[in-house]
Amino acid sequence: MSALKLAIIIGSVRDGRFGPVVADWFAAQVDDRFDVDVIDLAEFDLPAELPAVPPAMDPDPARPSGMVALSDRLAVADAYVVLTPEYNRSYPSALKTAIDWHFTQWDRKTIGFVGYSGGTGGVLAIEHLRQVFNELNAHTVRDYVSFPRYYLLFDEDGRLREPEGFEAAAKVMLDQLFWWATALAGARSAAASA
Ligand SMILES: Cc1cc2nc3c(=O)[nH]c(=O)nc-3n(C[C@H](O)[C@H](O)[C@H](O)COP(=O)(O)O)c2cc1C
């Protein structure tokens, strides 16, 4: 079987963000069961004004030209890992906008999370994201990676001072994603040819 496609989504877009450091670290944890595509939401147009018609009525609306490549890259992924900071006990609004502009892309796919922030390590953002992805008929895996007070955990070169526990957590999550992505890719394929 060819490698499954894993999209790693950088959920923060602000100047001075830490997200790309987390993305570099996580991408290095992924083994050859997956082909990785790192998707940086800062590279795309994400207008807050959503389509006039709800996705259940028009699942593939016309999108801004600056969003089309994002939509295409999300569509081909078998699994996603969303990297989320925590803003006021939730996840960034740019991430919600990117999610809401899409519908079929998330359908019957599996999703994992890496959170980072102050004391909570992004877990409140992760729990909010689980609710959103339930509505999109996606399966979020149980285990996640969390970096509480990430600024103490990474050094000035973006390397973890004590990586072992975080590497182990990433492996557990990747194993779960592989199981679900394999099962769901097979089920989608069978449904498409039925
Ligand atoms: C508007 C805002 C709200 C924040 N709220 C929280 C919070 O509720 N809990 C927390 O642990 N950290 C909070 N933080 C700290 C961020 O998690 C931290 O700044 C992190 O670096 C943000 O990720 P980013 O640099 O990739 O944007 C907040 C930061 C911002 C900018």
TrEMBL record:
Domain NADPH-dependent FMN reductase-like: 5-149
One annotated Gene Ontology cellular component of this protein: cytosol
A molecular function GO annotation: FMN binding
A Pfam family hit: FMN_red
Protein name (Swiss-Prot/TrEMBL): NAD(P)H-dependent FMN reductase
Organism: Nocardia ignorata
Origin organism lineage: Bacteria, Bacillati, Actinomycetota, Actinomycetes, Mycobacteriales
